[in-house]
Amino acid sequence: MAAGRQRILGALSAWRSALTDRPVSLYAASVLRIGYGLAYLAFLLREFPHRQEIWGPDSPWTPALANELFVQTGWSSILTLSLSPLYFEACYVFALVTCLLFLLGWRTRVISLVFAIVVASFHARTIFMTDGGDNLILLMSMYLCLTACGRRWSLDARRLRLRAEADGAGGAKTGAESALMHQLQFTRTQLVTLLHNCGMLVIAAQVCLLYGSAGLYKVQGNFWGNGTALHYVLNLDLFRPWPALSILVDHQTMFIAVAGYLTVLLQVALPCVLFSKVKYVVLPLLLGMHAGIAVLMGLPLFSAAMIVADAVFLPDRFYLYLGRHLRRLRHRKADREPGAPDHVGTSHVPAQAQPRPTGGTRTSQGGTGTARPSGIGSQSTP
Predict the structure, then answer these.
(1) Distance separating the N- and C-terminal Cα atoms of the chain
(2) Which of 22-26, 100-104, 186-190 is least confident?
(3) What is the structure's pLDDT at 357?
(4) What is the pLDDT of residue 381?
(5) pLDDT digits (tens, 9 = 90+) for 66-77
(6) CA spacing 20 to 30 A to 368: which of 177, 222, 349, 361?
(7) Helices 108-125, 26-46: inter-axial angle, 10-degree rounding
(8) Is 49 exposed, middle or buried (0-12, 13-18, 19+ CB in 10 A)?
């Protein structure tokens, strides 16, 4: 009985240490921040010419109808607080600036909350025009509020690094004040680490649930079972941005069948291979699948949201290795540029020895004549 209790306490202690001692996947969190900030910024810029008809006062779904729906659903939006066109334009510019600051990682703790409010407001304003990509970005924006997504590749990280270099170790305090500050800092660090790790765990669970449920629903369908599902998808007029390309792909019968079966297999398999190296094969295939959805079905926002979400499954060592590899490639490219100094072999081979002067003049460091370098090819002077 005592041994069993000790094992349970040991397991709980290990879980506590894992959740509070070290933040996990800081680079993945930064990729999620950059990816979703960039995706929503591009989305708002793309719809900028049509903003009045989608979210503004000229929308068929008027603010009055939106407020009536908010009473039933509990949603709200900053876009319906005023009917003034000038107010809407200010909100749109504010949304663009928020996405840019979130992308750059400036004051991320506050901006992440503002970004979630912006996404929720635009989502709720025309909720009947949203798709799976909008829903996923909304969920991820709320989850990222819990994470320390500004620790890497951000203006916050740069500011903290410069401050640490300028201040050094900082002034040390003594006595009770120092102990109190140390305890408060320790408690804050543990709380922030706990929230970050729980947020990343929720994000990973959300993506697994999305892929797993989508794959299992497809398994139950007859069209996916006989390999003809993609044929019907490619013939939907609503999802044919390039009809000629859809027709060309639809004529590849074997490719359509294999792609359909592979889609179901990848979606069901991803939650099962997260802790093995097989995921490094599954994730690129999922990337290709989402790229195909973006091109063939005209759903770039949905594909971008899914591709960015997949980044949560890549460990920090992958991003560190990728950064080192890119730096090596950049250095090699710089060395090959015209005008760059040639470092191959020239720093290890000494200059050729000068010929011995005629007339019996002796050469030495302290005498007259031409000095000869020592090394390979040089001879001693008699």
Answers:
(1) 93
(2) 186-190
(3) 52
(4) 36
(5) 999 999 988 999
(6) 349
(7) 40
(8) exposed
Burial class (CB in 10 A: 0-12, 13-18, 19+), 243: exposed
Q: What is the 3-state secondary structure (H, E, C) of the chain?
A: CHHHHHHHHHHHHHHHHHHHCCCCCHHHHHHHHHHHHHHHHHHHHHCHHHHHHHCCCCCCCCHHHHHHHHHHHCCCCHHHCCCCHHHHHHHHHHHHHHHHHHHHCCCHHHHHHHHHHHHHHHHHHCHHHCCHHHHHHHHHHHHHHHCCCCCCCCHHHHHHHHHHHHHCCCCCCCHHHHHHHHHHHHHHHHHHHHHHHHHHHHHHHHHHHHHHHHHHHHHCCHHHHCCCHHHHHCCCHHHCCCHHHHHHHHCCHHHHHHHHHHHHHHHHHHHHCCCCCCHHHHHHHHHHHHHHHHHHCCCHHHHHHHHHHHHHHCCHHHHHHHHHHHHHHHHHHHHHCCCCCCCCCCCCCCCCCCCCCCCCCCCCCCCCCCCCCCCCCCCCCC
pTM of the shown model:
0.81
pLDDT the model gives residue 373: 39
Please name the residues in contact with 305: beta carbons below 8 A apart, sequence gap of 6 or more.
36, 39, 132, 133, 136, 137, 140
The C-alpha atoms of residue 19 and residue 12 are separated, in whole angstroms, by 11
| Radius of gyration of the CA atoms of the chain, in A | 31
Tokens of 242: 């390039």
Q: What is the pLDDT confidence band of residue 328, given thresholds at 50, 70 and 90?
A: confident
Count other C-beta atoms under 10 Å from residue 135's C-beta: 15
Q: Are 84 and 56 in contact (CB under 8 A)?
A: no
CA distance linking residue 290 with residue 301, whole number of Å: 10
pLDDT at site 154: 94
Tokens of residue 154, six digits: 């951000």
Q: How far is CA 5 from CA 15, 17, 268, 347, in A?
A: 15, 18, 37, 67
pLDDT 10s digits, 271-326: 999 888 999 999 999 999 999 999 999 999 999 999 999 999 999 999 998 888 88
